[in-house]
User: Fold these one by one.
Assistant:
Number 1:
Amino acid sequence: NAGVTQTPKFRILKIGQSMTLQCAQDMNHNYMYWYRQDPGMGLKLIYYSVGAGITDKGEVPNGYNVSRSTTEDFPLRLELAAPSQTSVYFCASSYDAGVRAEAFFGQGTRLTVV
Amino acid sequence: AQSVTQLDSQVPVFEEAPVELRCNYSSSVSVYLFWYVQYPNQGLQLLLKYLSGSTLVKGINGFEAEFNKSQTSFHLRKPSVHISDTAEYFCAVSTKAAGNKLTFGGGTRVLVKP
């Protein structure tokens, strides 16, 4: 049972570089999410998707982009990395809303921008 | 808008003692409430959830939580903790009005001492 798989687990970027954080789920979930976790701040929603071809901004979308070309994949793109984007990034998925709203999380990607 | 406040950022507790983690939420509509646990260097895992019905919810690993609508609270309890309960715990809320997106509290770090 793979669940939600994120790659890479760790990455160091220089200021101004770009990268894509990969996320894949094998549970045929419609909903997918990207969160960032900063100490003492909980998780903040960056972007989410309710199905292939549909994405929307969350609470903190600036500096990020997403796409959802398939049900399984939901990559997060960082353009022009900044130190403020140093964080742990979590991808999550859920089947639906309401009573099936349980979100399943990946193991996270720890990103440092120097 | 919905929000979640976890009143304690850290809770030290001795092994076999009880623990209570406090969570208050703010929402003008009906809510779904969740507690997630994050073990070191791991993703988040669902402990329990309240969707409707009985206000006392039992979860995994001996945890339970009580939904109190009048006090807008969803406190998490365990009568006797183990060393393995050392982790960070997140309370989260979602509403249909917010598209069932999860809003997380800042987290409570539980350190169980022998």
Number 2:
Amino acid sequence: EAQVTQNPRYLITVTGKKLTVTCSQNMNHEYMSWYRQDPGLGLRQIYYSMNVEVTDKGDVPEGYKVSRKEKRNFPLILESPSPNQTSLYFCASRKGFTYNEQFFGPGTRLTVL
Amino acid sequence: QKEVEQNSGPLSVPEGAIASLNCTYSDRGSQSFFWYRQYSGKSPELIMSIYSNGDKEDGRFTAQLNKASQYVSLLIRDSQPSDSATYLCAVKGPNQAGTALIFGKGTTLSVSS
């Protein structure tokens, strides 16, 4: 089954404690993205990757890091989380840059105390 | 700042009626337009894409695009309670790598039986 998986699905942490949210896809897609979704602000892209070792900033990259060492994995790293990073995070993947077949993961709800 | 505007709703329609969801965008260079459906607590799911002016039909869904007026709409015919969800309009700029998908904040649709 074609899918995007994320782990963990729920996470409560404290300010400053480094964390990683994993994302994996089994569709051999080149493009992967991380979004955050906040009430009243909608979905905003944090980072995206066009292929292995190729990443770039989206609209709201501050406080986040990513890596793309393998085609299937695209982890999101928060090195020093702060309460304003409390949000619902989605990983997504697509075959090309045209977005006509973009698949989202199930989401990770992060709370930073 | 590229913007995508949607009426947040809620839009309430009775079962069997036509639901009309609207979206306007600010970037005249936008080339690709998408509608996503998001059930509460779930990830967005692509339901329609449209690239040229006019109508595109897929089952009970019709997407309409008017680039001159910079609006895109989604019609849902014979609305069902299972259509109750938040509908996200998303717009992409010129067809090149690295162009982000800009999401509207979404319109909540409620279909009553």
Number 3:
Amino acid sequence: TQLLEQSPQFLSIQEGENLTVYCNSSSVFSSLQWYRQEPGEGPVLLVTVVTGGEVKKLKRLTFQFGDARKDSSLHITAAQPGDTGLYLCADGGSNYKLTFGKGTLLTVNP
Amino acid sequence: DAGITQSPRHKVTETGTPVTLRCHQTENHRYMYWYRQDPGHGLRLIHYSYGVKDTDKGEVSDGYSVSRSKTEDFLLTLESATSSQTSVYFCAIAGTNNEQFFGPGTRLTVL
């Protein structure tokens, strides 16, 4: 059974700071998806990475996929209060089933 | 907007009563899912469906059943609710690249 570990579990920072959160797997990812979940809402897909070493940018968010496809990171530059939420990684798996990590709960204070 | 709605959005019920949650999609997607989300456990798959009348169990299926008689509707039933089933329930559909789109969630409290 694949295990996804996300770290840190909780992160509280001030507006304008940079941060990085991590997602590590006990086995090779089929593909890696990152979601953000705001309070009281369902998760929303941010990005999918497939190729080892891949880097994708989404405004102030930078996603990296490890060369061995067993780890990924999400870096946020100049965090804003609107970035507050639960960041989840998920393995694409097979048969259209995803395996989710437990998430990193980010709070950005004004 | 993936066109997913869930009903009810909030429900309080008593132990031992049956509860049915509804997920409705307007996108004609084949795959639909039910998850529960609890502190410390993340999102856990309860059941999923890969077509009308085609369903399968997820990792936490005990105490839950599902039905899909139409492409657009996926129902989750708790035959006899227990306090351990107090949770937030999310429905999701799968896109063409295996990405998932989630509904707004149902907060269920079992007293």
Number 4:
Amino acid sequence: DGGITQSPKYLFRKEGQNVTLSCEQNLNHDAMYWYRQDPGQGLRLIYYSQIVNDFQKGDIAEGYSVSREKKESFPLTVTSAQKNPTAFYLCASRPNPGGQPQHFGDGTRLSIL
Amino acid sequence: GQQLNQSPQSMFIQEGEDVSMNCTSSSIFNTWLWYKQDPGEGPVLLIALYKAGELTSNGRLTAQFGITRKDSFLNISASIPSDVGIYFCAGLISNFGNEKLTFGTGTRLTIIP
């Protein structure tokens, strides 16, 4: 089945540790996105990539890093510089051309031990 | 980053009632989207609106793209238990290949037995 796969579903991090969240899509979409969701708030954009080997900061990029070496993969690293990393992280992708709706994975919940 | 004003924040209704929620913004959008999110999952696209004044239905759901391009509403008729969840509006602005999707803060729908 075509879709967006995020893994793991749940992730625990010790303070001072970097962790990487996986996002893979087999929809042949060019653009991919990472959002953070906190209780009672909407989704906030962390990073996005419109094409392989290129990515842009979103509204809350500090403490995060990404790479886009392959079209189907857009991993997000939550670094130790992110002081409040506990949240629900959502990956999305959308087809080209622009103006199309984004479709989401099922999310990864990150918690601090 | 900007977030849309979505209201109400929460709704408690009885099964069979109709539901109405809306989003307003100070900015103009090219596209309005409505998503539904179940607990622990990613948002699922319900309706996409592409033209000012457009009225679109998807089963018991009806959404409209405001004529000013600064607002949208979603109606659900004859609610059923599986309608429970959080509903998000999202506005998309697309200029010369640069796109930005802004989310509302969500409307939590609860059905009272």
